[in-house]
From TrEMBL:
Lineage: Bacteria, Bacillati, Bacillota, Bacilli, Bacillales
Protein name in UniProt: Uncharacterized protein
Length: 134
C-alpha cells in the first residue's frame, strides 16, 4: 500500500526527520505569528515550518531560522510554489552573503536549507524531499 503524501509543511518535516535527517526543534507558523506575514495570503504558502538541524554548530542559541537548519513551505499549487522559489532564489543570487541558502522545489513544496551546509550535506534534504513525493 502506498504511503499518503504529506498534506502540510509539518508532515513534510516529520517525514524528513523519519528519513534520518538531523532535525531538532521546529516552529510551526500560523497567519498570526508568521514573521513574513505571508501565510494564507493569496498566492503564498499555506503552511510553514522552520527547523533546526542539530549537525550545524552555531553561536545562535534557541533561534529556529533557516541559517540554523531550514524551512519548509507548502503551497496550494505548483505555480505559487515556483513563484516563491524564483523570488527567494533571485534574492540569494542578487544579494549573496547573508541571503545565500540552498533551495529545493518539489511540486507544491519549497525547502530552504542553511548555507552552513556543504553542498553534499544540503543535497540530503533534496534527496529526502524527492523520496517523500516519489
Amino acid at each position: 500500500m502506498e504511503k499518503p503524501k504529506p498534506a502540510n509543511a509539518s508532515e513534510v518535516v516529520k517525514s524528513m526527520k523519519e528519513s534520518g535527517l538531523h532535525i531538532g526543534k521546529t516552529e510551526t507558523y500560523t497567519a498570526s505569528n508568521d514573521p513574513n506575514n505571508l501565510l494564507g495570503r493569496p498566492g503564498q504558502y499555506t503552511s510553514k515550518v522552520n527547523f533546526v538541524d542539530t549537525s550545524i554548530k552555531t553561536d545562535v542559541i534557541n533561534s529556529i531560522e533557516v541559517t540554523n537548519g531550514g524551512s519548509v513551505e507548502m503551497f496550494d499549487n505548483e505555480e505559487d510554489a515556483k513563484n516563491r522559489y524564483d523570488y527567494i532564489s533571485g534574492i540569494a543570487k542578487k544579494m549573496g552573503g547573508p541571503f545565500s541558502e540552498y533551495d529545493y522545489l518539489e511540486g507544491k513544496v519549497l525547502i530552504r536549507v542553511s548555507k552552513e551546509f556543504t553542498p553534499d550535506q544540503a543535497k540530503r534534504y533534496e534527496k529526502a524531499l524527492k523520496d517523500i513525493f516519489k
